Structure formats: C-alpha cells, structure tokens
Amino acid sequence: MNKVLLLKFGELFLKGRNRHDFIKLLKTNILKKLHGYECRLEETQGRLVLSGYQEQKEDEIIYKLQQVFGLIAVMDAKEIDTSMQSIESEVLNIDLGGVKTFKVSTKRADKTFSMTSMDMDKHLGEIVLDKFSNLKVDLYEPEVTIYVEIRNNGKTYIYNRLHKCAGGLPLGSAGKGLLLLSGGIDSPVAGYLMAKRGLEFEAEHFHSYPYTSIQAKEKVIELAKEISAYCGKIKLHVVSFTEIQEQIHRCCDSEYMITIMRRIMMRIAEKICEKNDLGAIITGESLGQVASQTMQSMNVTNSVVTLPVFRPLIAFDKEDIMDIARKIGTYETSILPYEDCCTVFLPKNPVIRPTIKRAQELEKNLDIDMLVRQALNDEEVIEINNY
Ligand code: ATP
Ligand code: MG
After folding, report:
1. CATH 2.60.120.260 fits 2-164, yes or no
2. Ion ligand 2, residue ranges at CB < 5 A
3. CATH topology of domain 176-384
4. Ligand 1 pocket, 292 CB below 6 A?
5. What is the pTM assigned to this prediction?
6. pLDDT tens digits for range 98-138
7. Residues 6 or more apart from 360 whose CB is under 8 A from it?
C-alpha cells in the first residue's frame, strides 16, 4: 500500500484540444509549488497522482496544493494493487470512529474486474456494516463517503477525505497583465481573482514619499508576497508619484485632482505594459465605492489608455471583498494604517461625474509626457516570489 494524493482538476475538461497544454501547465505549476519536496507527479485517466513524498510532509503538501489554481480538490488516498481481498482489507482499515452514517461509492474503469460498481458498493457496504454494527448506510447525506476507484492500470485508490482547492484555471494560461497594487484591501483581491482565471501579472505601486511613509511601501511588498503564494512570481514596479502629485496639486482644480491622478497612473501603467509585454491593466475598483469609481469617473480614466482594464471587483460589495481578503490572508496587512498616495492630497469634494473634456483642459497645465517619463526613469523593481 502506498499513500498518494489524487489531484482533481475542474474546468480543464471544457477546453477540448487545449486540454493537453493546460494539464502540462498545471503540472509545471504544481512542481514549482512543491519545489524542494521529493515527489513524483503522473497523469492517469483524468487525474494527477502525486506520490513518493515523505508521509510526514503530507499536510504541508496539501496546504500548498490548495493554493494552485486549476485544482479543485486533493484527496489523500491509499493506492493498492487491485484485488478483492486488498480492497476489502483497506476499506475495513478506514477509521470510522465517531461516524454514524456512510456510503460506498465505487468507480470501475477496469471492466475486467469481477464485480460491477454497484455490486461493489453493496458488497463493501455490507462488510463495513458487519464490522461496525452501530453504523448505518445513508445514500443521500452520509457523514462519510468511502470512494473506491478501480483503475485500468491494475491499481485501486481508496479515500474518504476531500480537501477543497482554489479552483480556477492554471496560472499563466491566460497571459500576463499589470496589477495596480495599492496598500488597500481591494487591489490584492483583484489580483488574486484574475490569477484565478489564469492571468499572471506584474504589479505596480505608486508612492508619494515623503508624504507616504517607508512602511507604506513595505506594506505593499508584504501584500505582494502574500498574494504571490497563489499568483506566482511578481515583479513589483515601485514608482514615485510625489512630483506628479505636487504639480497636480499646484495647477488643477482640487475637485479634479483624483481624476487627473488616475489618468496619469493609467498612462504610466500602460507604458510599463508596453515595455514588459503585458496585455491588460488590473485595478481593484468597484462601482460606486468612492467618487473616483463612478461609471463616469472610470470612463474618464479609461479613455487615456487602449489596453483592456480588468476590474474583477466591479460588482462586489465591500463585505464580500473583505471575506476574500481574509480567506487569502491579505486582510490583516491591508488594514495596517499607512497612508496611500491617493489619500495624501485628498480633496474635500472630488468630482463624481467628471468629463473627458474638462480633464483634458486641466491637463494642459501639465507636461504629462515629461512627468510620465520621469516617473518611469526612477522606477524601482523588486522581484517577489513566494509561490
Ligand atoms: P484599494 O483597497 O485597492 O486601495 P480603494 O478602495 O482604496 O482600493 P482607490 O484608492 O480609489 O480605491 O483605488 C482604486 C484602485 O486604483 C486600486 O484598487 C488600485 O488598483 C489602484 N490604486 C490606487 N492607489 C494606488 C497606488 N498607490 N498604487 C497603485 N495602484 C493604486
Ligand atoms: Mg486605496
């Protein structure tokens, strides 16, 4: 008997001829995630099987696999050579202490095996009942389901526990974007959700040192580390916004400050995308959350770029965003009280329905090309890998 992990992947089935590439990518990502662990990963009949690892590392490995997009569940299973006797003995070995109801669910790919799946369910159910007289079979809502998978290759897998994984599509299957990463609650979650759909990303953070503190930057590095556990390696571009903000502050209507700031952020982001071959900009905006996130505001900021802007949180309530932040472990870092550059010169009455025309008029007071160029010249790049 060998202990193995059966890895179940989801939507990949939908992808027809791309399936092969997706599985290859998923396998690469799994092996990257388990870098440093001794193990073997094989594909058999719609499943991946991980074996050859140290048994005492199993919990750690499961925890890591739960962060790999594209997997929907991990089952810790026993692998045995197929025979009625060995199946019976492994099923009877399962610890059912404290359990009141169960069922057996057999899948028989090996049609040469003597019993049908249904007969096996019944037979194994009976021997379990013989051994544990206090148990009952419940076919609809059992506390425990004993799964028996009889494969074509002479192996049978037996398991009764399923560890839910992150789901989604393999990282890298959707290309690469640029996440605008502030120190807030929303943008790390936005990055996580896009990565879940297979998009890798680099990140960009604007700081306004000395108006914003060194800790504010460290907080963003920490957030990038936290999401990197799911989202893979992140190249973080740290860009100074101080000069830009001071100039905007000096020569624009205060109610348009945030609008102009956002437009310049987008222009810088697009330049970084061009230089690094990134195909989309990602933000943590949510419709109506603040003045700069009304439909009109987003239109005015969007209009300066041609790349698609992904806003995965657009229809999310703050509460729901916070729930995800807690689940992925960014919440506690996000609520640390350091200022973001957007809050430094925050106007009292930011415009709620800005127009492109007015924004363009105000921008005539600024040498935008020069400001963008200067900001990009001074960028600092930090490589983060916590995958
Ligand atoms: P978050 O919680 O992500 O900070 P927020 O609710 O505070 O979002 P805003 O401050 O209006 O909203 O920012 C909207 C989006 O703009 C952010 O989600 C992020 O994608 C981007 N953004 C804001 N500030 C910065 C910054 N300093 N650096 C990089 N991107 C930023
Ligand atoms: Mg913010």
Report:
1. no
2. 182, 184, 340
3. Rossmann fold (3.40.50)
4. yes
5. 0.94
6. 999 999 999 999 999 999 999 999 999 999 999 998 999 99
7. none
